[in-house]
Design brief:
Oligomer: single chain
Largest sheet: 22 strands, antiparallel, barrel
Helix content: under 10%
Length: about 725
Amino acid sequence: MERSNTKRIGNRLWTQYTLFLLFTSVSHITYASEPAISENLNNSSGGKLAESIPVKTVERMTVFGEPLRYQPKVLPHAYSYLDEAQLAKVASPLALSEYLNDSPGVFIQGGQNFSQDERISIRGFGAQSSFGIRGIQILVDDIPHTLPDGQSQIDGLELHNLASIEVLKGPNSALYGNSSGGVINIRTQQSDSDELKVKLSKGSFDTHQAYLYANKNLDALNLDNVNIGVSAKRTKKAGYRDHSQFETTMLNGHADWQVTPQWLLRFNSQWLDSPEAQDPGGLTQAQSQLNPESARDKNVEYQAGEQVKQIKNTLSSQYHVDEDNSVNLQLYHYDKDFSNSLPFEHGGQVELARQFFGANLQYATSLPLLFNDMQLIVGANFQQQDDFRQRYDNHSGGLRGELTLAQQELIDSSALYSQLTTNLTTHWLLNAGVRYEHDSVEVVDEFLSDNNQSGDKSWNNTSVNLGTSYQFVFGDVIYTNFSQSFQLPTTTELANPNTASYQSGGGFNPDLEPENANNYEIGYRGLFSEEQVYDIAVFYIDVTDALTPFYNDDPDNETTFFQNAGHLVRQGVELSTQHQLTDTFSLRNQYSYSDFSFKDFTTPQGDFSNKQQPGVPKHKASSGLSYQTDTGLSVNADLLYVGKRYVDNANSQSATSYWLTNLGASKTMEFDDVSFKLSFTVYNLFNQYYDDNIRINAYGGRYYEPGPEQQFMFTLAATL
């Protein structure tokens, strides 16, 4: 291990030196605030509608911190947007799905298994993941929570105190790079006044959550240009199923320094400790129907689950040179220790020490370089991921056995990108982007008793997007676009199933290639009336070398491996409507039709051509009715329909369709110096059986993870 430790220390010293150089150069880097929005687009939605339906009055859509000069209503791609008022309807969030379940084209499962994490898919991207999130980019205040290899880390997501969530549908690699089959951009509230919030929640299955947020402006110390804030969250849950306990503590801190009227520095730091997240495992269809609360016997025997500790530090520099030029810089560093126990013996315990850092530099100009009304963005991005992975035998009772694997995994990513957005005429907008990215993976084997399995791979990729939209004089918008994405295999997906070829194939699967996709889309946004709006998008996505999970026929080793499918076609329709029925009642609806099928997919396990992609429902719909008064009373009723999902490539079994009904009510009471908000939510009101998660192609037919029966949540919040 000495050589690995020396190399690892060298990498960390080089990382720290690089960060030091970048930090010291911040004072010479500039960025920007928000250019004015086109005057001819400001009121295109209609006055009354703009007041009643917040989602249509968004003033900006952001790209790595730089606000575009056009309203998202006219941008030529599908998106969803949730503002602060809509997000506040979720009183005490435990999972991201509580915000995004009613977004068309987005499907989330696994929200009840905190060991596996939520599995989020956007138009099918990410649906094939065996655990966690793949294939989509997640950003919080412009800082990536997606690693260079394409895994998204959501352990440290701040789900309270949010300002907005933007979801970009379909491939976006031209701007965001690897694993951008969709983008989720989360923004937290940034207050510059004194504030204190306390929130206590208690719910079914022994759920407890406490949240504290404090913000302070340092004007009393003659530092009115400095603002600091801290938050703390503690969550504990026994879980609906056996062996599904979860516990986590998270601390966040930020400091904002308005150095000059044009220059803002923002520092964030996070500490996370999750000592327990048990994994109840998948069940067969018969087991899930007979006893949905049970855990798989081997998951209990081998104490399957995970433990996580993480520290994150970020720095953003925002400087407005003048009204036409700006520069944005973000620096970020993660330090994560991860332990995982799997429900089998050989190599069933994983220890992972991860370092991840990156820098993104972006310049934006609104000068009339080609057209009188345009914005050009150019940028550079560099990221490095350094994982040291060890695997041990896992004996009954979770006892650690012999070391079976030790290797260092290095992933580097560097990219240059640009995007042009311009009004060719008063009503006609053009958007175009291109990105060149180089990615490399190196594995250094440090367990040589089974031969040297070191190796390396690299890829070069160029992605483009081209879109245009036309806004009619009456305000409706029609648009079309072409965009691309690529998805590298993650370090986990690169696990080698061909043990006999380890020495020649390196420490990862030598046959696995990146997934590539071309997206064609047309959409229309319009008004039925000032109180009613609709949005429809039709897409066709051509995917080659789709990454698909499978298991070897070995009961003593249930490691998930991946292979490429030759050709996959995704086509679908997304529809959403919003209606302001009265001054107090509003209604929103969405429907997604997703026809995702393999056109060419032959493996040693069989020919799966013309089979449906597993894990994604063909039909998904939701409806939400809201009642809100000026007296602080709010009532929300939400209905979600999920159609059947195939569970394997052969489409031999499927998870049945289901309806879920959630009902929530809250009352806000204002006093002189404090306001209280009491909330009550009933999830799964009618006690519907459903499968919260599907383990695709799982060994032994254990595909199903039943979701919880009816559950309740009470929350009391106070704001000073």
